[in-house]
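seq:
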Amino acid sequence: MARARARGRPQAPSPMAAALWELVRRHVGDDTIRLMQVRELWPRIAGPGGAALEAHSWPASVSGDLLTLNVHDSQWLHELTYLRQDLLRRLGELAPGIRLRSLRVRLGEVPPLAIRRPPETQLPPPLPAPRFSPEPDEETRRALDAVADPELKQLIAGARIMLGRG
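struct:
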């Protein structure tokens, strides 16, 4: 029976990660880093079924322990005024290290979701299956005859036969 792994403190970052974070922190302020973290978490903070909240609000700035949230219109301003504590609670659960204690909601620019979300990477369409005639042409036969290893020759011939099937 396997023992459950004891939960301890989170592991320290690797030396490379620690060096990268040190470099980032030298050039980027703490408030900006925390704002980027909030923006990254915003779809999850909005919660399941929170697509409307995500579409009509956007974290605009972090200053100390204050998060400023831009909203699309006065209706959202009114509604989010009542949800401030709940949003801060969700944020604290998802990222306790961000250390935000208050949330200000104001009318402001909310970028469209299409701009905020990176496009999903699409795989290129699959290549069409190669079309070979059932019988190999002269050039293919010569190339096959040039293979010295009998085992490799047999594998190539078998692959050629498979590719020639419809």
